[in-house]
Amino acid sequence: MPVFRRRKGSLPRLVPELDDVxxxxxxxxxxxxxxRGSLDTAVMALMSDVIDEAGQDWDRKAHRLAVLAGxxxxxxxxxxxxxxxxxxxxxxxxxxxxxxxxxxQDSTVDxxxxxxxxRLAAELLPADPTPWTLYLATLRLERSPSTExxxxxxxxxxxxxxxxxxxxxxxGYLSPDECGSSALVLDLLDGVRSLMPPDAxxxxxxxxxxxxxxxxxxxxxxxxxxxxxxxxxxPDAARTLDQAAHYWPSPGFLHHAAALADLNLLxxxxxxxxxxxxxxxxxxxxxxxxxxxxxxxxxxxxERYAHFHGRYASGDPDDGGAGRAASRRR
Length: 330
Fold this sequence. Notes:
Strand order of the largest sheet: 1-2
Number of helices: 18
Largest sheet: 2 strands, parallel
Number of strands: 2
Strand content: under 5%
Mean pLDDT: 90
Oligomer: single chain
Helix content: 55-70%
Structural class: mainly alpha
Low-confidence stretches: 1-9, 316-330
C-alpha cells in the first residue's frame, strides 16, 4: 500500500483514512449506516475484514480502528459487539468509541467497563498492543496517578516497542496540561531518542512535543506568547527539524499508516520556524491530504493547509524555488 498516494490535479482535502484506500471505502459505507441508524451484516463483515487485514501491523490496525470509531458514531460499535461478542475487532472498536464519547462534555461512559472490554480483547489476541494502548487512554482521561502507568506501558512495549498511538497517548498523559510535567515529558523523550529507529511509527514523538510546547506558549499570552517562536531556535528543536526535513519527505522513508499525518506536522513546524523552502517540499509530499491537527490550531484546518500548500508546494518536487525565495525574503 503506497504511503504517498497522489491524485494529479486534486484539491487539498481532509480524509481521515489518509492514503489507506481500502479503509476509505469501508469508512464511507460505515458513514452511510450511521446516517440511517442501522448496521447490516455486510458492513459488519467489511469492518471485520479491514481490521483483520492489518494482521500484525499493529500501527495500521490502530489507525483503521481510530478512523472507523470516528465514523461509526455511538450506536454502531455497540450493535457490532452485540452481534459478535467474541470478535477482537468488535471489542476494540467498541472501546475506541467509548474513548471518543468520554471526551464529550457530560459524558456518561463508564471507563471501568471500557477497561474490562480491553481486557477481554487482550485475552482474545494476547500479541496485540492495542487493548493496552486503549487501557492507557482511559487512565489518561481519568487523570489517574502515574503509578498506574508503568505496568501498562510494559505490556505495550513488550508487544510493539514503537507503537505510534501508544507513544502519543503517553506523551499526552505525561504533559503538564494533564497528569505530568515538562520534566516527565523530557524523561520520556530521553528514554526513546537514542533507541528509536528514524523511520519508526513513533518517529514524530519529539516533534509532537515541540509543537505542543509552542502551542502552550502561544496560549499563555503576553510575553510568553511573543517569545513562542524561540522554541524553534533551540538546539534540540533545530536538530529534530533538520533530521525530519532531510529524511521524511523521501518517498517510502516513512511507511507507517499515519505517515501523512506526520508530514503535515512537520510542514506546520517548519512554517513556524520560518523554513518555508523545506516546508514546501514536505507539503508537496503530502499529496494534498490535510489533517485536522495541527492546522486547526490556527483556524479552519483545511483552509490553513490549502493556503500554505498553494503558496509553497510546487507541482515539481525538484522545484523549490518559490519556497526558497520566500525563505530568503524572511
